Amino acid sequence: xxxxxxxxxxxxxxxxxxxxxxxxxxxxxxxxxxxxxxxxxxxxxxxxxxxxxxxxxxxxxxxxxxxxxxxxxxxxxxxxxxxxxxxxxxxxxxxxxxxxxxxxxxxxxxxxxxxxxxxxxxxxxxxxxxxxxxxxxxxxxxxxxxxxxxxxxxxxxxxxxxxxxxxxxxxxxxxxxxxxxxxxxxxxxxxx
Length: 192
Hints:
The chain is mainly β. It contains no helices and 16 strands. The strands form four sheets. Strands 1, 2, 3 and 4 form a four-stranded antiparallel sheet that branches. A four-stranded antiparallel sheet has the order 5-6-7-8, with no helix packed on it. It has a four-stranded antiparallel sheet with strand order 9-10-11-12, with no helix packed on it. Strand 1 (3-10) and strand 2 (14-22) form a beta hairpin. The two termini are 30 Å apart. The mean pLDDT is 89.
């Protein structure tokens, strides 16, 4: 059995790296996913597909978008980086992401972010992977300032006779409970 590890590695700025660990061999050789010296990369999370393709997603800055954006790399793509979001507006920077892979090899990334369509509150956003990254869409569409939807987590509910279902849970304020964060969740839904 192999443990897959995505982590921050600091030199001049935080970068993202990957390694493995097994009881028999110990740690493998670390792979530098990012190697920049100017723009921070942080909050990596990892998912392994049913075909052992390792996906790491994180939030990071680039020269083209000096705000935190969602980025992803995978072992099957020789660790080439894909920028999921490309925001350049400071108010639309993203929060830390979450990722999950089902047994059919589909992935989903979720995160919290304000955007041009919903600039007053953080909403839960997502994208899915089925061989290519799909368009981003909002899970929540909160428009009232202060009713932020934050800290999403994602998991898989396995069904024996059917496809896997993704479950997303997060903290959010609602009209009836605007002064406190409450746990909110999606109902089960299929990836595609």
